[in-house]
Amino acid sequence: MGAPLGQLTRGTTGYNRLRRSDRWLVHSARVRTAVGSATDPLVVDLGYGALPVTTLELASRLRSIRPDVRVVGLEIHPERVDAARPSATAGVDFALGGFELAGLNPVLVRAFNVLRQYPVEAVADAWSAMQRRLAPGGLILDGTCDELGRRCAWVLLDAEAPVSLTLACDPFAIERPSDLAERLPKVLIHHNVPGQPIHALLVAADRAWASVAGHGVFGPRVRWRAMLGLLREQGRPVEPPRRRIRDGVLTVPWDHIAPAGAPLG
């Protein structure tokens, strides 16, 4: 395959840092269908960092969908791969690779806190490289989060285009929804300015959050759900929350927040 496609990233990671995106993955109907119906349930965790812990956690959680899921953690730095290989278990392996996905054809790719460290101009080519390698019906999760995984955002893509944006958080760890703006994926973070759809969504979420402040007496999770309900009443295509949910999650179709005048999406 030649040299891996990409550049070395900082490699910071930690136990349970990606738990919110993992929980979303295992409850997403589209992801469950893609992984559950795959002939070969191969998943790639791209850019797992200096420690392999989040790859192992991802495999464990995805087994609730497919007990026979196979997860390959890819890193661009050979030393990180060598350090991770002793942690390999049944159904989990580690290899050298970048956006070319080491020639694999996975049904799901998770690339978290990777493109965040690239220039925005590199996003389109990175997405395209990964999309070309997907198995039929495959999906990509391009996301970012803070160091403790309490504030997260990610874009879900299929082989053709972005599908949706999700904001996720510990509702106890924010003052308002727009606190998540600092964790927007690279493709969106520079578009969080007046006149752009993502900015309008965050402004609307903040206003709805303030309007349902009375629900805060029951806790921030109840307040978050009330905010989502108000946004839907206002015509925002917000995905209804699951009945039982620990996280504050807001998911909208990509075309609702696609950057105006940008080539992506």
Automatic annotation (TrEMBL):
One of the GO biological process terms: methylation
Coiled-coil ranges (or none): none
Entry EC number(s): 2.1.-.-
Alphabetical keyword list: Methyltransferase, Transferase
Record-level Gene Ontology MF annotations: methyltransferase activity
InterPro entries from the UniProt entry: SAM-dependent_MTases_sf
Keyword Hydrolase: no
Name by which UniProt lists this protein: Class I SAM-dependent methyltransferase
Highest classification ranks of the organism: Bacteria, Bacillati, Actinomycetota, Actinomycetes, Mycobacteriales
